[in-house]
Structure formats: structure tokens, C-alpha cells
Write a structure and sequence with these properties.
With 270 residues, this protein is mainly α. It has one domain. It has twelve helices and no strands. Helix 7 packs parallel to helix 10 and helix 9 runs antiparallel to helix 10.
């Protein structure tokens, strides 16, 4: 089961990296049309639909990964999709400098350090009240995203990136909490399932519009930095995610390297 969780994390990383590029292609094709009309034009394009398929595969891998692996590790691995995005972008004619390759190496080293410090374990059970709070918290990224939506230029994209990151945070937290639940019809009424749907819709929607307003690696990097930091802290506080005894300094270094590598790659978009 642990090996399956690791495989799920790798699939999630690859899937999200591929989907970011595909969705960016669709977004740039409709760059001249803004607002809901522009969003509709993006969604109906084949690259975007293929991106959603890659997203779906990645999300299934994510669900498998969080059954046994802590959020700070899984989300950091997913942040590695920034590197996948950058590598794929080179196939479309972009050029990576030595600083970009260094950033990829730093990101990879950070993930390796995190992988040897995380304690594989199922999430601690939480209450129904906590489940409902996770669902209700969707109002935060929704409001933030609509504020960014009404703005223009890079500030608009950055705010919507933050909203998307918080939306995907809700998905990650809900997925970690629901991972041990048994499949049944009653699951359709579970707050955590609806939290995944609502948070996911918010994250995907604002992420897509942000892609239309700025570069793919910038949007991806900002979104995933939030998606790594916030769920990691929640996982430790709420689910009992743990680090191997005596390895906290290594974990901190690995976490900073992984985040630093992802942030550094954001300038590649320019």
C-alpha cells in the first residue's frame, strides 16, 4: 500500500505538470476575450479538455498518495509539477538557463530530503464538525478570487493564483480526511466529498482565468507554493502528520529547497 501511495504521488506530479501546459495553450488562444465569455471559450477547447483529463488522473493519484503519506510530502511532490511544466515548455521552444536547471536540481533535492524524513501513516480521524468547517471554508478563496477577477493585469493574476491555491488546499485537506472512508452511497452526502467538489471548482476556475492573464509557470508556481505551505501546516495540526524523530532540521531544509526551487522557476515564464 505504501508503494502504491508513492506511485500515486508521482502520477499526480506528472499529471498536474502536463495539465498546466495544456490549459495554458487553451488560455492563450483566448487571451483577447476576458470575463465569463473568455472562460467559456477556454473550457470548450481540446487542449483544455485534455488538460482536465490529465488533472483527473493526477487527482486520483493524489487521493491514493494521501492515504499513507503526509500532506507536507504529497503537496511538495505535487509542487514538483512546476518543474515538469518548465521541462515541457522547452519542447515548445522555450529555453532553460543554467539558473533554471539549478532551480530544478534544488527542487529535486528538496523532495528527496522530504521523502526520507516523512513518517508514512494514515490521517487521524476528525469530527463531523471539522468536516463541515472544511466545506464552509470555501467561501474564503471564492471571495478572494472574485476580488482578483474584477482587477486587471498581474495583480489580478496573483490574487486569483492565491484563491486557486487556497481552493486546491481545501481539496488536499478534504482528500486527506476522506481517504480512509469506505465507498458507499452515504458518501454522496458527506461534507468532505462536497468540499472536494466545491474547493476544486473554485481552484480550477480561478487558476484557468489566471493562466489567461499571465505566464503559465508564474501562475503555477504561486498557486502551488500556497498549495504546499497551507495544507502542510494543517496536516501537522489536524491529522497528526509527522516527521521522523531527529530529522526535523532535514525536513525544514527539504521543504525550503522544494519551495525555493518552485518559486525560482516562476521567473522562467518571463
Amino acid at each position: 500500500m505504501l508503494m502504491l501511495s508513492w506511485l500515486g504521488a508521482i502520477v499526480a506530479c506528472l499529471g498536474y505538470g502536463v495539465s498546466s501546459v495544456l490549459q495554458s495553450v487553451a488560455a492563450k488562444r483566448s487571451a483577447a476575450v476576458v470575463g465569463l465569455t473568455g472562460l467559456a471559450l477556454i473550457i470548450k477547447q481540446l487542449p483544455y479538455l485534455l488538460g482536465l483529463m490529465a488533472d483527473s488522473v493526477a487527482f486520483l493519484g493524489n487521493l491514493v498518495a494521501v492515504r499513507e503519506l503526509p500532506l507536507f510530502l504529497v503537496q511538495s511532490i505535487i509542487a514538483g509539477s512546476v518543474g515538469i511544466t518548465a521541462l515541457i515548455a522547452t519542447l515548445r521552444g522555450a529555453r532553460l538557463s543554467w539558473k533554471d536547471w539549478t532551480s530544478l536540481a534544488v527542487l529535486g533535492l528538496g523532495l528527496i530530503l522530504l521523502s526520507v524524513t516523512a513518517v508514512p501513516t494514515a490521517a487521524a480521524k476528525i469530527s463531523l464538525t471539522d468536516d463541515r468547517i472544511i466545506l464552509a471554508s470555501a467561501v474564503v478563496p471564492a471571495v478572494l478570487g472574485f476580488i482578483g477577477f474584477r482587477m486587471q493585469g498581474r495583480p489580478s493574476a496573483i490574487i486569483m493564483c492565491c484563491a486557486a491555491g487556497l481552493g486546491f488546499t481545501g481539496v488536499a485537506v478534504a482528500a486527506r480526511a476522506i481517504a480512509e472512508d469506505q465507498l458507499s452511497w452515504s458518501l454522496l452526502l458527506a461534507p468532505l466529498l462536497w468540499a472536494i467538489i466545491v474547493h476544486g471548482a473554485i481552484g480550477i476556475g480561478f487558476f484557468t482565468i489566471a493562466l489567461q492573464r499571465d505566464a503559465v509557470t508564474l501562475v503555477t508556481a504561486i498557486t502551488f507554493v500556497i498549495e504546499v505551505v497551507v495544507p502542510s501546516l494543517i496536516g501537522i495540526a489536524l491529522f497528526g502528520d509527522a516527521i521522523e524523530p531527529g530529522r526535523l532540521p532535514i525536513a525544514v531544509v527539504g521543504f525550503l529547497l522544494a519551495i525555493g526551487g518552485a518559486v525560482s522557476l516562476s521567473r522562467f515564464a518571463e
